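In the previous chapter we treated chains in isolation. Here, by contrast, the input contains three separate entities that must be folded as one system, with a combined length of 104 residues.
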Amino acid sequence: MPASSSGEFIEHVCAIVDSIPPGRVMTYGDVAAVLGSRGARAVGQIMARYGADLPWWRVIRAGGHPPAGHEDRALAQYRAEETPLRDRPGGYRIDYPAARWSPG
DNA sequence: ATTATGACGGTTC
DNA sequence: AGAACCGCCATAA
């Protein structure tokens, strides 16, 4: 099938994010890496536009920080699916090494 | 085709 | 540890 259409990147990103199981997370860079690209920002763009129907909270930034501007909603989800978190005074961070997941 | 934007990443101060 | 700067990629206008 001729999947070579505009927006191929978008559909791939959506598929990957949607395939992330509960309690697991992936960084924007990882998602992009799976597609053979380094467009971590591009992935964020897609989340902002098409991530409304996806488990966007399972996609975090490098270092274990939640999506900027969505820390609150993300935290609620993490606590709801028992995502490995690392509580911190004044905020929190995700235990990336433990919650890390790859589509393979 | 060019410019501006963004739920980023890494390095440096 | 926090802030600033530059670099990278795809989308939208």
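Chain A has a mean pLDDT of 93. Residues 25 and 56 of chain A are 10 Å apart (CA to CA). Compare these points with the single-chain example from earlier in the chapter.
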